[in-house]
Amino acid sequence: MGNHCCQENGSGNAEIVDAGASVVNPPEDAATQPEPEAAADPEPDAEPEKEPKLVITVVGARGIRESDWTPFKNSEASKPDCYCEVRLGGKTIHTTSTIDDCCEPVWAEECSVAELGENQALEFAILDKDLVGSESVGMASIQAKDFEAKGFNGELKLADAKVDQAYIRVKIKVAGKDLPAGPEPKFAVTLTREKDKSYGVKFNMRDERTLQLVEITDGPFATYNSIWPAHKHIRVHDFITRVNKVSGNSKAMKDELVANLEVEIEVTRCVYTAIVYDRGEPHSPLGMEFAEAKTSDFAIVKSVSEAGHNANAKDHGKICTGDRIISVGGQKGKATDLVKNLEKSSGKVQIVLARPATCAVRSEHWQYKN
Asked: Where exactly are the transmembrane stretches of this chain (predicted)?
């Protein structure tokens, strides 16, 4: 009834109707009508919800493997079914969902801590759910002094893991503070050396594309590490992927380093991961070529076919050129032994890889942005 309209009724009073709302003129004896009750006093505003002392995000884990894995085990249930328990002061405050059949679970689950006692450490226990219970895959902890002032955003190494390099990624936001910046896959550093002095490093150059650090001794690299906080350190096994404007060629980068007293280098983090490799039939072609490195403790992949395993693997489970194979079916060894173990394996076998964090299939997943 969008239009105004007037009608006369028997008492001579007019009823005015407008857009569904009505106002009726009071009758002549309105004075005799009881006065309307006074409106009740409004309720006081509720107090704003108190910000929790901590907001903890369990992001994901990498490098883990099944707790009861045995070398060359061939089973469809070859990956762990993992969940994480968050513990504060020894008490479990959150349990994540279980992610089935995955070596790199991503939970991205939050929990809150309303009150925080003095010097209470946080623990993160990763467990593998079996038919008859659960087994520990690894445990990480962080002391109160390392998060209560500014929070934390990074990786914690898992102790008691089946793989040497296993980590869990967590975020800890403290009330009233911004979450710290997370880890970067690469960063630039400027270093200087004195004339007739070395930079104090040794490299593995077998992939012909990078300089992988295998030793850091006295020199500019060690001096840099003594000045900067731990999360900025240049670490053994990290990759140098650029020296000044030279990149993509190991020998050319080393020559550039040796020729200059001051250099800007790009350091790319080394990350470790466990994948389940679908080997197929034993002694069938691997579809990979390896660098000559008989004395190395890892086998370097020089080229890899996109058929076979890679055709069916998820991005972060693929094998890439430049990957270092650290173990096969839980067994370590020299490069030649690792390749032999891979060749004689069959079906699905777990292998542990080391690779640059900026590997095309790794960068986003390593930071768990998916």
From this structure: none
Mean pLDDT estimate for the chain: 83
Contact partners, residue 9, CB within 8 Å, separation at least 6:
15
142-182 pLDDT tens trace: 999 999 999 999 999 999 877 777 899 999 999 999 999 88
> Which tokens sit at 193?
């050396």
Position 201 pLDDT exceeds 50:
yes
Residue 34 lies in a domain: no
For residue 292, is it within any domain?
yes
Model confidence, pTM = 0.73
Vertex 98, ends 95 and 100: CA angle to 5°? 165
- What is the mean pLDDT of the segment spanning 121-134? 86
β-bridge mates for residue 274, sequence order:
352
Contacts 24+ apart (CB under 8 A), 72-81: 72/329, 72/345, 72/346, 72/349, 73/329, 73/349, 74/346, 74/347, 74/348, 74/349, 75/347, 75/348, 76/348, 77/101, 78/276, 78/348, 78/350, 79/103, 79/276, 80/128, 80/137, 81/128, 81/129, 81/130
Q: Two tokens at 177?
A: 């503070």
Mean of pLDDT values over 2-27: 38
Q: Per 3-state DSSP, what percentage of the chain is helix, strand, and coil (rounded to 5)?
A: 15, 40, 50
We report the CATH number of the domain holding residue 88 as: 2.60.40.150
Distance CA 62, CA 84 (A): 13
Per the structure block, which two tokens stand in for 99?
């992610």
Cβ-based neighbours of 83, under 8 Å, separated by 6 or more: 95, 96, 97, 98, 99, 107, 126, 127, 129, 134
Together in a domain, 277 and 260: no
DSSP letters, 247-302, are ES-HHHHHHHHHH-SEEEEEEE-EEEEEEEEEEESTTS--SEEE-S-TTSSSEEEE
Cα dist. 225→187, 230, 257 in Å?
A: 14, 8, 18
More confident residue, 7 or 231: 231
The model's pLDDT over 23-32, given as tens digits with 9 standing for 90+, comes to 344 444 544 5
User: Are 246 and 277 part of one and the same domain?
Assistant: no
